[in-house]
Amino acid sequence: MPTNLMQTEDKVFLTQISQLAKSFQDSGDSAAANKLRDLIDRAQTDEGSAYAAFVGLFSAGKSSLLNTLCGSDLKTGAVPTTAEATQVRLSDRNSNVVLLDTPGVDSTDDAHQEATEKALHLADAIVLVMDYQHVEAEENLELAQQFGEGQKRLAIVVNQIDKHLDFELPFEDFRQRVVTTLDDWGIEYDKLFFTANTDSPYNQLDSLSQWLLELAIPQVNEGTEEAQQPEDALEAHGSTQPIPARTDMLMLRVEEVVDEHVRWLFQADWQKESERVEQLAGFQLDTVADIKQEFADITRRVDENRRYLEKAAEQLHHVHDTISEKMLRSIDSAQIAPYETTGKGKAFIESMKPGFHVGWIRKEEKTRDERQTRLQRFVEDLRSKSTQFLLWPTQSELRQMLAEQKWLFTEIEDEISHMELSVTEELCSRLVEEGALVSDSYSHQYVADVASAIRAQCSRQVKRILEKVREVTEEHHTMELSGERQALERLKEIQSALADMIRLNEDMERDKEQYMSYVLSQ
């Protein structure tokens, strides 16, 4: 909540910050207290100056770049010679900017890390320097991503552009590749510069210098006499973009330290709630907003799946009846007694009529043998036709119905494979109605009765299998729906944990606002 305090007495303002530092120290947060004291020292010794921290990996050329910008004589080399951030100044008639040369951010030395961190918290802007040959290195891009997510203005400098050779790659193609890479990584930055310490047609050292000097040009509130910024100052730097007022820049730095202190106060509670969310969710997301978005997406999918399964359950009986009707209709229309088979059935019935006999010698024995022979011929042919035109097509249709539901196919395949039709001599003999043998048309009816009995066998087996299909499907849907409900309950637990984190964050924001209100109360 930066505000313009240009009309407030500086001593009163700094006294408030000093008292805030004492409060932080008394609470045990000496790191935040020291940072506030550093800001007080900055305000007292460099009034009116903006600060920019030059950061980057070792050998990126930060010190050499600063020497060229400011005409300074900083020590250079891959190994830092000091654990302190070195200050140089860049000035013109309108602006004064303090540039901080930091050790390499990839240093493992604690003193170097402390110096870099101190420079970053003092800085109003960050200049990330990347070596030309390593601009697409993952380490550089991760740094750019990290700094881009902060509140400070970020300039990305591709240094040593004099190494570029146009015959290998046109500069505009190289520049566009850099821009595309930064965009692909989602890096937010204020400006992109290409620089060199020697002559190069692509050197933007002057533009970088102008951007740095603009950091110290004050921005004042609209609607006041002070709102008129010196046009010559803006024109001198080629910019019309409003820049925060000097005191507002200091207030931004104070607010950053306050934010760190509040996070320090709530660190244990925040960590506890964060671990609770991670334990429940089974994954870690960077922000509460990310987790809430994930929750919304999962909830939407759960609702869609639940509606689908409920609809599927409602339609299950309808589908079962429809399939049953189709299968039974196919069974009823199966031609298992074609002309030749029917003829054999008629021949058998003819042999069963009164008065039928074969020969005169051993007439009874020969007649009995003839009847048995005709019965066997009829049964064998009928069994073959029933298998070919009824059993196999029915099994095939059942398998086709289950082909897209492999979990169901596994359950039912054995049932389908063990289907069989009992076409036996006993069946065909049992279905003969002796009282009807006197009728000339009975042979047709007999064959129809036998075929109907065989179809009935097939129908009973299909009904049993389809009933099993219905039961297994219902169980499967019930289990799936149960799983989705359990997932929904788990998400509700996550939602509850997130709500606690949101409330904790609100408490942190309230404390932060109270601290800042104290600083602003003059």
Structural notes for this entry:
The protein is α/β, with parallel strands linked by helices and 522 residues long. It has two domains: 167 residues, P-loop containing nucleotide triphosphate hydrolases (Rossmann fold), CATH 3.40.50.300; 212 residues, no CATH class. Helix content is 63%, strand content 7%. A six-stranded mixed β-sheet has the order 2-3-1-4-5-6, with helices on both faces. Strand 2 and strand 3 form a beta hairpin. Helix 14 runs antiparallel to helix 16. The protein is elongated and about 140 Å long. The protein starts with 9 loop residues before the first helix and ends with a helix. The N terminus is likely disordered.
Helix run count: 16
Provide the structure class.
Answer: alpha/beta
Radius of gyration: 45 Å
Inertia-based shape: elongated
Biggest beta-sheet profile: 6 strands, mixed
Number of strands: 6
- Overall pLDDT score: 81
Proportion of strand residues:
5-15%
Number of domains: 2
> What is the straight-line distance between the termini?
16 Å
Q: Helicity, in percent?
A: 55-70%
Enumerate the spans where pLDDT stays under 50 for 5 or more consecutive residues. 1-8, 219-243
SSE sequence, one letter per element? HHEHEEHEHEHEHHHHHHHHHH
Placed side by side, the strands forming the largest sheet appear as 2-3-1-4-5-6
